[in-house]
Design a protein that fits this description.
Layout (H helix, E strand, L loop, with lengths): L1 E7 L3 E14 L5 E4 L6 H7 L3 E2 L10 H5 L21 E3 L10 E2 L17 E8 L7 E11 L4 E6 L5 E10 L3 H6 E7 L2
Antiparallel strand pairs: 1-9, 1-11, 2-8, 2-10, 3-7, 4-7, 5-6, 5-7
């Protein structure tokens, strides 16, 4: 529970006050997925109801592939160095000369191309929740008077496993009003 309380000694008319609290599902830092052969990361993530995050961190290792059940047993012909926009990837097409190799996991650029694909590879994709689907809420008051005793003005519940961010609290009352007001924000009681 997030509660915003105002306490003011001596009531003053406040022209407006608002609290904007952004809240929504907790997003994983990114969940790596291996696409089907020939799929772009946009397609891979979209199938999961997620969006592609172009940031892929491999730490110059095949461990992320291993974690997805891929055995890069054949030595990489390119030493794993990134050289194409459809990488990092696992070459699954048997007719491809790099069959069985993990490519492009060393020196991955800061941002990869989510819509690149190659017909014989399975892309390593970073899929995460789409923050455009996060829900947002706010509260506002107009021509409200601050009471002389501490009073709960707003209270919002954020569900367990969700996050909330207070982005701003504002008022348009006079300098005397602001200087004399006490604003308390209580989170979880």
């Amino acid at each position: 529970t997030v509660s915003v309380l105002y306490w003011y000694l001596g009531g003053v008319n406040m022209k407006a006050a608002a609290l904007l609290l952004l809240a929504g599902s907790t997003l994983a830092a990114g969940a790596y997925s291996l696409g089907e052969q020939g799929e772009s990361c946009d397609v891979v993530c979209n199938k999961q109801g997620l969006k592609c995050n172009p940031k892929i961190v491999t730490n110059n290792s095949t461990s992320v592939f291993s974690g997805l059940g891929v055995n890069c047993s054949k030595p990489a012909s390119h030493d794993g160095t990134w050289w194409a926009s459809n990488q990092p990837c696992y070459v699954s097409g048997q007719g491809d000369p790099n069959y069985g190799e993990c490519l492009g996991y060393v020196g991955v650029p800061a941002y990869d191309n989510c819509n690149s694909y190659y017909p014989t590879v399975r892309r390593l994709c970073n899929c995460e929740g789409d923050d455009t689907y996060r829900w947002h809420f706010g509260t506002g008051l107009s021509a409200w008077s601050l009471p002389a005793q501490e009073t709960t003005v707003f209270a919002h519940n954020v569900q367990p496993g969700s996050v909330g961010v207070i982005t701003h609290i504002w008022t348009t009352c006079s300098k005397d009003c602001v200087d004399g007001a006490v604003i308390r924000i209580y989170v979880d009681g």
